[in-house]
Amino acid sequence: MIPRFFTKELQEKIETLEKRTAELEKENEKLRKRLFKRKEKIESQPALYQETAEELKRAKTVIESLENKIQALTDEKDNKNQKTSIQNFSLSKKESLDFLEKIQTIKSQSNTFYSVYLTPNETELLRNYAGGDIFGDEIIDFADGIKSETGLIGFFDSSPLSVACFFSSPPFPPKKSEIFKDSIFLTKQAEDIFSKNRQTAFILAHAGESVIGIASESGLIKSELIKTGVKEKHSKGGWSQKRFERLREEDIRRHIEKAGESFKELLAEYKGITDEIIISGDKKTGFDIAGYSGDEFKDINRIYRHFDTKPDRYAGEKLAKDIWSARWYRL
Questions:
Q1: What's the alpha-carbon Rg for the chain, to the nearest Å?
Q2: Which end of the chain is more exposed for a tag (fewer CB within 10 A), N or C?
Q3: Coiled-coil intervals in this record (predicted)?
Q4: Vertex 46, ends 42 and 51: CA angle to 5°?
Q5: Do 114 and 155 meet the contact criterion of CB atoms below 8 Å apart?
Q6: Domains by residue range for the chain, with CATH
């Protein structure tokens, strides 16, 4: 009885194993056929295979290079953070004017106050001022690193018991680079930047959705949301992705054309009173849209600024306030 039982159990296990073996052999055959077809495809298109392999190799090289650069920048940032602590805060137009009014009330008995106005890319003036003995490495490194497209304004007390060291990326560039030494902080030029009568055109650019408009120091004058269909980014690889990217680029080009024509009409409507063009969002798309204004408006200064604003029907009102805001730094 017992031997007969084991024989039956063994036979059932053998049948199960044979069934599983057959299934595995079937799967194996499918894999063989798939690999053979893939090999045939690669061998029939050696140029494509070689091109793909080279592109992959180049991509890996670029990625490794970028990773190294990111690490180097991270290390540099960590080192700088160990040396100095810089507070920064954003102020609206009204808050900035109130802040300047407070700074103006401070007085020194020994003329140790410096008022700094720098146009974009003019930080050498700080480095060379008075033989380089006034502004220390902390201020010069800060000015070099901030890379503000609207320049810098600053108020610095050089005395050992310094009462102030404030700098700002103003909403618009100073007229010229200059440094004043006095017993008070000279804020008139800074106040003019915030409160001067001016009309500013703006572009908040994104693929498929952009906002254009014009604003003054008093608020929004006019804005328009321009929407066109642009395909979302493709996540898959291969020829499908390349074809998709070409179609997406065509959609973006059509969006730039439509927004550019509307922006040109806006500038024509306010011709002669537009002081500058503020561009935000996608930088390349924004400057391409501004480029459609043509030679007639090429002399209008174009400035890029970053705003955390999404393109929607309310963006114009928000941008009209953000454009006159400023980032302040306390060193």
A1: 32
A2: N
A3: 7-83
A4: 105
A5: yes
A6: 87-194 (3.30.960.10), 198-323 (3.30.420.60)
Distance CA 227, CA 273 (A): 27
The answer to whether residues 119 and 176 touch, using CB atoms and an 8 Å cutoff, is yes
Q: Please, what sign has the CA dihedral across residues 250, 251, 256, 258? A: positive
Q: 140-187, pLDDT tens digit by residue?
A: 888 888 889 999 999 999 988 888 899 999 999 999 999 999 999 999
pTM score: 0.69
How many C-beta atoms surround the C-beta of residue 76 within 10 A? 11
The answer to whether the CB of 179 falls within 8 A of the CB of 125 is: yes
Asked whether 324 and 194 are in contact (CB, 8 A), the reply is yes
